[in-house]
Amino acid sequence: MPLPRLLLSRHYPEAVIARARRDYQVVLPEHDASANGDALIEQLQGVDGALISASNRFTATIFARLPAEVKIIASYSVGYEHVDLDAAKAKGVVITNSPDVLNDATADTALLLLLAASRRARECLQMVLNGDWVGWSPTHLLGKQPTGKRLGIIGMGRIGRAMAERCRALGMDIHYHNRSRLAADLEGDATYHATADELFRVADFLSIHCEMTPATTKLVNARTIALMPDAPVIVNTARGGIVDDEALLAALKSGRVAAAGLDVFDGEPKLHPGYLKAPTAFLLPHIGSATLDTRNAMGFRALDNLDAYFAGREPGDRLA
Ligand code: 8YV
Hints:
With 320 residues, the protein is of the alpha/beta class. It has 2 domains: 116 residues, NAD(P)-binding Rossmann-like Domain (Rossmann fold); 181 residues, Rossmann fold, CATH 3.40.50.720. Helices cover 35% and strands 14% of the residues. It has 12 helices and 12 strands. The strands form 2 sheets. Strands 8-7-6-9-10-11-12 form a 7-stranded parallel sheet, with helices on both faces. Helix 4 links the parallel strand 4 and strand 5. Helix 1 packs parallel to helix 12 and helix 5 packs across helix 7. The longest helix has 19 residues. Bound molecules: 2-keto-D-gluconic acid. 2-keto-D-gluconic acid binds next to loops. The site of 2-keto-D-gluconic acid (8YV) has 9 residues, from loops.
């Protein structure tokens, strides 16, 4: 039997490419870039499956034009808002994601953002780099202390719970909102809020870990920010579209929100230009899962799903 033909839509880490080459006839574009539209359809010619990233948008239009040989699309991501699952199902294409293996890396990034935003790391770094640091002062660049404060977690899945674990170590009081309340062993000492509004009301710090769906798009907006306690810190490692940029920028400017730590942006890699001029916004270029261990594990998880499919078994992370 010839090996299945597999498109690697991006230049994944070496170990991932090596394993793919061992078990598949690999098609690897010469340059690493995110293909979409016609370019994506072009790449998908003559393959049986594809290992794609969240930068490849599999819309209903793409599925309508998908070559018939393509039977499985494995996403190198936990998020799957870039894939139209209904269109995939209608076309009979199997879709998988790569959850779980990035929980720690993403929660680490959320913690980095929470601390960097609350301790004004951007302003501190800028001052040192500009040569503007003239000496110590008792009230210089004072930040917010997380100890004893309430952390509101929106989306208490595996990444949300990994963030809760880290923030318990900071002495924070954990609150969460989730579509359903967690079982007691997973909830631990965290306080459940049945609605997002209830959570906003108590969140001195807020960390976003939910999926982006029509219900969570612009969930953080002028109305919900107004519900929050005075001068909260907002962290987002989920998807940029969950935050209304105009509302957050206005709140950062007025001080209604003390600081924000953002790894993801609506329309990234372009971001609202307001963030470039907002000193209390600490910004990262979507590096939530960016450690070599994690990126290897994501690739291996995606390949496990592909291997299962081509061996006639059910892929463990099947979404459609
Ligand atoms: C990825 C992510 O780096 O897994 C996700 O959903 O956002 C990140 O871990 C990115 O999406 C690569 O596909």
